[in-house]
Structure formats: structure tokens, C-alpha cells
Amino acid sequence: MANYVNYKLIERGDNWVELCFDQPDSKANIFNESALRELDAVVADLAGRKDVKGVLVTSGKKDMFVAGADINLIKSLDTIDKAIEGASAGQQAIHRFSKLPFETVAAINGACLGGGFELALACKKRLASDSKAVKIGLPEVMLGILPGFGGSVRLPRLIPLTAALPMILTGKQVDGVRAYKAGIVDAYLPSQDFNERALKWAKANAGKPGRRVHTFKDKVMEMVPMRGIVFSQARKGVMKATKGKYPAPLKILDLLGEIHGLDTEEALKREAKSFAVLAVTPISKRLIELFQLSESVKKTNGVGPEVTPIKVERAGVLGAGVMGGGIAWAFANKDIPVRMKDLNWDSVGLGLQQAGETFGYALKKKRLTKPQFMGKMGHISGTLDYAGFKNLDVVVEAVVENMDVKKKVLAETENHVSENCILASNTSSLSITEMQSACKRPQNVAGFHFFNPVSRMPLIEVIAGAQSSPQAVATLFELAKKLGKTPIVVKDGPGFLVNRLLLPYMNEAMFLFSEGVSVERIDKVMVDFGMPMGPMRLADEVGIDTASKVAKILNNAFGARAEASPLSEIIAKSGRLGKKNGKGFYIYENGKQLGIDDSIVQLIPNRTAKSAGLTDQELVQRMIYPMINEAALALAEGVVKTPGEVDLGMIMGTGFPPFRGGLMRFADSERAQKVAETLERFAGAGGGDRVKPNQALWDVAKRGNFYRD
Ligand SMILES: NC(=O)c1ccc[n+]([C@@H]2O[C@H](COP(=O)([O-])OP(=O)(O)OC[C@H]3O[C@@H](n4cnc5c(N)ncnc54)[C@H](O)[C@@H]3O)[C@@H](O)[C@H]2O)c1
Questions:
Q1: Distance separating alpha carbons of residues 20 and 24, to the nearest angstrom
Q2: Alpha-carbon dihedral of residues 374, 375, 381, 382, nearest 10 degrees?
């Protein structure tokens, strides 16, 4: 038999061959051009052997079966023809494999995603281990494409439609147990000596039919007319979740409807075509780029390889309020024991209750078992003093937003922790550098800015104060990843990155309201743009009093360009604080939004109709372009280093629409020159310094784009 670069063929007795995918010089197995071409040759090799009774497909990598197709290859597809050709090449190699005239069994002992799962689906049987590393799924939809190596065809033919649809439409991944329950794998085996056990199982079960889990109800659901109802429900779900902004899930539904009952070859052809249509869209390119940005975060510690972060095994949280309770949850959720300190037991109780509610929700949704729930809650202990703080690696401060209090608390904490303990502040607006001035070991102090609600918001800004050591920054960066979050390193300064950029947007929305545009319309144009909620609704969520306070802080820091609309203060003073007390721009009952508070209009002094005639597009420009303006300045000041970090921050921290690729990608698609000229016009029309394009933006306009690719 020939030698291969990516695969090893090992004789395993009884005429069984192990086909081990083991790409050289790589931690992962990826279907790139060479691996696919070689797979074809391997299949031809095996097909020519009369003695083979079975093939066990394994991986030579730890915790990994196959990670998927080469993402750079997908990103490079720029014409439909090239994309069809690319998908067909993969499809055909895998399809020829599926036609081998003997038993083929995939032994899945780690990540089995995208193209990897599609190879497993082409096997006659599949086995999964109980390793925590097993995750099986088709994440293509998250990259704006669909499974194009046969997955869209084979998965709905293997398992019930109602189980296949969510996996293809949302990219949902399952572990070994869930894969077994869903009928994806034929057996679920212990991970110890997995390949040996898998081989034994495969030999013992050779020739027997594969496992099918379809119930009577599943079979009815796949027949006309129920099938139509399942599809129309799925379409409704997709529209609700994506508001029609993402073409991939809609295309998937069209394709699955179209290929039902077709022979596999014809179905594969249609799959390749649908894949190609999606692969060349700018939305797919943006989503792939976003994926690559978040992957690149995983490979760094935020500082440099020469810095070794401290391993965080025990943590503390000061303040058991809204954020403290959430942060304690985040530690416990990753099985890091955490001490939560507050001024009295009532407050500690509230923090515990908050963490308990989040774990309780997971329990209700069956994401946690009762013993797991108890275990997680057991990681959080409350205290009124510093008992146990000597053993902590990190303490996160989340007490009230007041510089004097924070300085006092940090200075006091330093006396009760070890010399190496990192002190992290969750402040949303105060200077880390100033906090360091109150500390004996300022090098151990840095910012660690979570977003609210902690359990749902993926971003953490790691703020380097003037004296923060690289090790403190790297430790917090690694810790954020360990907590399942996406960190970006941000220079200390008012509003850090995300709030600094968000403020002009919220502020302009307030000005537009004073200039005659309705709350309803302001929010609608931004939701149509793709924001998860409009700015007025966001002000209600944040708290109008809080929004007003932050606006003032930034106004003081930045002067005329951050002139705060007086509106939020007036509204907050009228007792409308937003969702937390049931009235803001909207009215709420038990947290549910009931409608707009029309009476709010009467509170606005000298309301004009100046902007009422602006088009929807101009309204978007009025709110988004000032953010771009501020981002240009922040980049020039080195608040973050790259436009990619701005995009990651805005998408993960504010829900800026991922399909637009982030604020900077959007700016490039609009062209910086047009953004600057439009802002100049807005400034001339009464917006003044608030919306005047700054030199940094003009510089970008002159250069062309924010991104330099
Ligand atoms: N709420 C948000 O949306 C949000 C988002 C990001 C960051 N933050 C920041 O997080 C921090 C906390 O905000 P929050 O909304 O959770 O406030 P909060 O008022 O809900 O909680 C503050 C807690 O700190 C406690 N506390 C005060 N002094 C203390 C001390 N000396 N020792 C121990 N505990 C003390 C209070 O009793 C209270 O329980 C602030 O710096 C805030 O700016 C808030």
C-alpha cells in the first residue's frame, strides 16, 4: 500500500484496516486540498483490495477527530463556479468513501465538526466516546454557508427531521451521550483505550444494520402534510431569530425541502450549488472573518509569548450586587471556587440568589443535572471579612462606581491577599491608573470589565493601567478565556473602548428624539439595521439614570465632542429610570415591555421637528457615523491596536450586527470618505462639534479603509 502524508493505514487483524487521519505539523485535522486529494487516493487504494472486511476511521490527534474544512479555502472562493468546484471535490471524495463495499466505522474521540462530521456521516456506522472533548456538529451556518460535503443530504436521512433541522439551522453541537440519544452514533464507549474498544465493537457488529431511533411520531412528522408544517415552523423560528438578515438558514430550508426523496447523487449536486450561492456572499466572508478573529484571541495571552500568566485556581469577588453576583456565577460555572464579600449578609444573600437563578435556569433547561447544580453552587461561599483571601489568585472588585470607595477597598484588600494576587476592577468608567495610585503593588492591579448580564454577554475588556504588569494583563486575558468569554486588551481611558463608542450612538438617539423623531422610529430603524434592540430601549435596559451618569463622565472627559443630551437627566429626574422601575421610554410590567410612554414627549423642553423629515438611512447615519468617528480617534490613540479588535468588541459587547462584520467593516463598506463628508454636513446642519469628523477619520479617508487588506 502507498504511503500518505495525511493518513496512516494500519492493518488491525481479521482483515480490518485502521484509517488514521493525522495531518503533519498540526494540532488539528483539517480537510484542506491536500487531505481531500489524498482521501481520494486512499479510497481508491482500499477499493482495490479484495481482502478488506472493514475500515475503522480514527484520528491521530488528541481531543480531535476532524475540525472541518479549511476555512481559508472557503473564504477564498470568489465565484460561484469555483465554489461549486470546491464543494464537489470534497463531496466526491467523501461520497466515494461512502460507497466502499465493506463496513466503515468512524471512531469519534473529540471535536468532529463540519467536514469531519460529514466524513463520519458517510461511514456506515459511528461510535463516540464519553470524553468531554467530544463535540459533534455542523457549524457551517454560523459562517454564513451550509454543510457542503454531503452533510445537508446525509444528516436528515440518518436521524429524525426534527433533530436534524436544529443542528443544521443553528450549528448546535452535541456530546457523545446526546449524539447517541439523537441516533447520530451507534454506540457510546468509554474514552479509555477508545480506539481498541471501537475496533472490537466494530468487528463484533460488522454487517448488522445501523441504529435508527425514529419513533412513530418522527415518522409521521416526515410525511406530507406534517413535513410541510415542520418546515413552516422552522422558517418562522429562523425569521424570528434572524429577522431575515442571514440568508444561510433560509437557503438550508429551501435545499432540504428540494432534495427530499432525491437520489443521493442528485441531492449532492444541489447541495453544492446552494453552498456556492452562499459561499460567495459578503455576509459569509464577514462571518468567517469574525470566526477567525475570535479564534486568533484563543491563540494569544493578550501580551506576548514571553509573558507567563498566573494560573487562576481560586478567586474572590468584592461586592455581591448585580455584577458581583454575575461574576461569582461565571467563576463557579467553570468550577473555580469563589469567595464573595459584601458589607452585610443580606447583600451576600442577593448575590448568591442571583447566581442561583442563573444555574437554576440551566437546571430547568436540563443543561445541568441536580448534582451538577449543587456542585456549582457549592463553589460560591459568602463572607463579610477577608477570611480565606490569602489563598486567592485573583480578586475582582465590583463595588459601587465611586473612585474613593474603590481606592479604599483595593488598598484594604491588598493587606489580606498574597503578594502575587491580581486585583481586578470591574469599573465601567473609572480610571484604573488612578486606582493604582492607592495601592502598594500597582503592578498587580488592572481592569476586568464584564458586561451586563454576565451570563449572556461574551466580551470582557481587560484594561491595562499605566502601571499594570504584562503578567497581570496576561493573567486576566487567560482567565477571561477560561471563563468562556472573549477578551480584548484596552488601554485605560474614559469609557475604555465599548462604552466610549456606544455613547455617541445613544447620545445622538436622544438628540434625534428632541428633534422630533419618535422613540418608535428611532428604535425601528436601528433594529432594521440589525441591532438587537434600539438605543431608546437600550437606555431603558441600562437604566436612564446610569446612562445619564456615564454621558456626563464622558462629556467631562472629552468636552464638546461628547456634549451630552440633557434629555436623559430630565427623564431620569422625572422618575423614569427605565426597565428597573417599570417606566422609561417604554412602560414595563414585571419586566415585560407593554408599549411606549407617550407622556414622555411633554417632558422635552423646546422639542422641534427639525429631524422628523430625515430618511431612515439618514437616521442610521446620524447614529452610527459618530461611532465610526470616535472609533477612528480611539484607534489613533491606541486604545486598541487593530480595527479587528474594535469589531470584535462591538459585536461581542453591544450586539452590533455580526453580518455587517462589525463597526469598522461597516465603515469600510460605507467608505470613510463618505462617512466624513456626511458628518461634515450634519455638523453644518446644527450638530456642531458633536458630529464633526475628526482628523483621524479624515486620515483614514485619505488612506482608503480602516482595514488594510
Ligand atoms: N450594572 C451594570 O450594568 C454594570 C456593567 C459593567 C460594570 N459595572 C460596574 O460594576 C460595579 C458594580 O456595579 P453593580 O451594578 O453590580 O452595583 P450594585 O450597586 O448592584 O452592587 C454593588 C455592591 O457592592 C457592595 N459594596 C459596596 N461597598 C463595598 C465594600 N466596601 N466591600 C464590599 N462590598 C461593597 C454593595 O453592598 C453592593 O452589594 C461598578 O463599578 C459598575 O460601574 C456595572
A1: 12
A2: -20
| Residue owning grid cell 407622556 | 599
Helix (H, G, I), strand (E, B) or coil at 490: strand
Pairing, β 586-589 against β 592-596:
antiparallel
Q: How do strand 338-341 and strand 380-383 relate by DSSP bridges?
A: parallel
- Cell reading at 419: 503578594
Q: Which of 318, 327, 344, 399 to mutate to test the pocket of ligand 1 (most atoms within 8 A of CB)?
A: 399
Instruction: Name the nearest CA neighbour of 326 among 428, 398, 413, 432.
Output: 398
Residue pLDDT, tens place only, 159-217: 999 999 999 999 999 999 999 999 999 999 999 999 999 999 999 999 999 999 999 99
- Specify which residues 460 forms β-bridges with: 450, 487
pLDDT at 2: 78
Which fold, 7-280? Answer: 2-enoyl-CoA Hydratase; Chain A, domain 1 (3.90.226)
**What count of other Cβ atoms lies within 10 Å of the Cβ of residue 708?**
8
Distance CA 248, CA 169 (A): 8
Angle at 567 (CA atoms; ends 563, 572), nearest 5 degrees: 120
In this structure, the residue with its CA closest to atom 21 of ligand 1 is 321
Ligand 1 centroid distance, CA of 402 (Å)? 9
Q: What pLDDT, on a 0 to 100 scale, did the predictor assign at position 471?
A: 98
What residue ranges do the domains of the chain occupy?
7-280, 315-492, 499-703
Whether 347 is in the pocket of ligand 1, judged by its Cβ within 6 Å, is yes
Total Cβ atoms within 10 A of residue 697: 26
Query: Can you name the CATH fold of 315-492?
Result: Rossmann fold (3.40.50)
- Report the C-alpha gap between 127 and 118 in whole angstroms: 14
Three-class secondary structure assignment of 570-598: HHHHCCCCEHHHCECCEEEECCEEEEECH
CA distance 343 to 319: 8
Where would I find the beta strands (DSSP E) of 601-693?
none
Cis bond leading into 535, ω under 30°? no
Closest by CA to 214, choosing from 153, 168, 162, is 162
**Cα 504 to averaged position of ligand 1 atoms, centre (Å):** 25
Take residue 550 and report the three cell numbers written for it: 456615564
Ligand 1 pocket mutation, candidates 400, 425, 550, 652, criterion most atoms within 8 A of CB: 400
pLDDT for res 1? 62
Q: Which three cell numbers stand for residue 365?
A: 433547561
CATH number for 499-703: choose from 3.30.1360.120, 3.40.50.720, 3.60.21.10, 1.10.1040.50: 1.10.1040.50
Name which residue sits closest to atom 9 of ligand 1, judged by CA: 427
What's residue 605's pLDDT? 85
- Give yes or no for residue 498 CB within 6 A of ligand 1: no
At 683, give phi and psi (nearest 5°): -65, -45
Query: Looking at residue 185, what DSSP letter applies?
Result: -
Collect the ranges in the chain with pLDDT lower than 50.
Answer: none
What are 95's three cell numbers?
Answer: 461520497
Q: Which of 252, 207, 431, 398 is CA-nearest to residue 320?
A: 398
Alpha carbon distance 112, 114 (integer Å): 7
Ligand 1 near 405 CB (within 6 A):
yes
Per the structure block, which three cell numbers stand in for 192?
A: 479509555
- Rounded CA-CA distance 156/461 in Å is 41
Q: How far apart are CA 445 and CA 432, in angstroms?
A: 8
Catalytic residues: 449
Three cell numbers written together for 148: 457542503
Q: What pLDDT was estimated at residue 289?
A: 95
Mutate to test the pocket of ligand 1, among 354, 395, 428 (most ligand atoms within 8 A of CB): 428
pLDDT of residue 709: 77
- Which pLDDT belongs to residue 429? 86
